């Protein structure tokens, strides 16, 4: 047995940073996916899909759980790294629960999810992914914070989604640019109010696209693909933060625009033992 944590994407968000990582995070809307990351303790080093791999968030997690970096961990991921699918959050969540069980740390669900959230915030690799991945479903983060402190609303949509992966966007770089963060905060708060007035998937796509355009996070290449999909009668927007189009169209349609595609269903569950 090992542990699985779901991927998640963000439709729009507003960063909320405080001196306390557990009170930091973001408001906005995230979507939990059926694909994700599995973690299993191993002998000597960290591997991702069979290759040596490490990143600051997992190193910080090891430190907070009292493990040495020489401890091995096997990660199996169904999602790309650095493209807005919440890889670091999912990988660290699966790892935290695996370590907790195998090392008999006896920590509770939200104790572990809060530790991972703290690692994400301190590493600037994510602000809201862990909350979404902890609860499952379409998660509205109304008050920012760790999974145990956040105020959310959860919607049980079960749509199938398709994704076109064009490239990466460095979350840490965006979050360190004060001008961009101010713009994101302004339009993110407007988007949250608009979605709560009409919490439906069609509205979520529309608001997400408007947010990406107004903040300047969406470039012309992504915008043209989305417009083309809309002309065909589909809903589409851009994943935050990744150069990735998500849509309700069939994944075969997205293959007309690029080779790297995947599909997933909205998932209602968080971290599970598999």
UniProtKB/TrEMBL annotation:
Q: Per the UniProt entry, what is one GO biological process?
A: coenzyme A biosynthetic process
Q: Which GO terms describe its molecular function?
A: ATP binding; kinase activity
Q: Which InterPro entries match?
A: GHMP_kinase_N_dom, PoK, Ribosomal_Su5_D2-typ_SF, Ribsml_uS5_D2-typ_fold_subgr
Q: What is its EC number?
A: 2.7.1.169
Q: Which residues form a coiled coil?
A: none
Q: Which UniProt keywords apply?
A: ATP-binding, Coenzyme A biosynthesis, Kinase, Nucleotide-binding, Transferase
**Pfam families for the chain:** GHMP_kinases_N
Which pathway does the database say it acts in? Cofactor biosynthesis; coenzyme A biosynthesis
> Which reaction(s) does its UniProt entry say it catalyses?
(R)-pantoate + ATP = (R)-4-phosphopantoate + ADP + H(+)
Entry keyword annotation includes Kinase: yes
GHMP kinase N-terminal domain residues = 57-137
Could you tell me what this protein does?
Answer: Phosphorylates (R)-pantoate to form (R)-4-phosphopantoate in the CoA biosynthesis pathway.
What family does this chain come from, according to its entry?
Belongs to the GHMP kinase family. PoK subfamily.
Put simply, this protein is called Pantoate kinase
User: What species does this protein belong to?
Assistant: Archaeoglobus sulfaticallidus PM70-1
């Amino acid at each position: 047995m090992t542990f699985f944590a779901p991927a998640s994407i963000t439709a729009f968000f507003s960063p909320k940073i405080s001196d306390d990582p557990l009170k930091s995070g973001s408001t906005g809307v995230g979507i939990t996916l059926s694909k994700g990351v599995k973690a299993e303790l191993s002998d000597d080093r960290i591997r991702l899909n069979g290759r040596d791999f490490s990143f600051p968030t997992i190193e910080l997690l090891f430190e907070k759980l009292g493990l040495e970096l020489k401890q091995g961990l096997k990660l199996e991921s169904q999602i790309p790294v650095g493209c807005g699918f919440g890889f670091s959050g999912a990988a660290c969540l699966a790892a935290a629960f695996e370590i907790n069980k195998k090392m008999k740390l006896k920590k509770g669900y939200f104790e572990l999810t809060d530790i991972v959230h703290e690692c994400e915030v301190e590493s600037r690799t994510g602000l809201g992914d862990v909350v979404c991945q902890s609860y499952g479903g379409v998660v509205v983060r109304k008050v920012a914070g760790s999974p145990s402190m956040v105020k959310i609303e959860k919607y049980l949509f079960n749509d199938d989604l398709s994704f076109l992966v064009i490239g990466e966007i460095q979350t840490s770089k965006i979050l360190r640019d004060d001008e961009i963060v101010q713009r994101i905060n302004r339009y993110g708060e407007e988007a949250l109010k608009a979605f709560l007035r009409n919490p439906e998937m069609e509205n979520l796509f529309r608001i997400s696209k408007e947010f990406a355009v107004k903040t300047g996070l969406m470039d012309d290449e992504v915008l043209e693909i989305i417009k083309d999909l809309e002309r065909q009668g589909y809903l589409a927007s851009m994943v935050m933060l990744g150069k990735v189009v998500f849509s309700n169209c069939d994944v075969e349609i997205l293959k007309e625009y690029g080779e790297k595609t995947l599909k997933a269903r909205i998932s209602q569950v968080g971290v599970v033992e598999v």
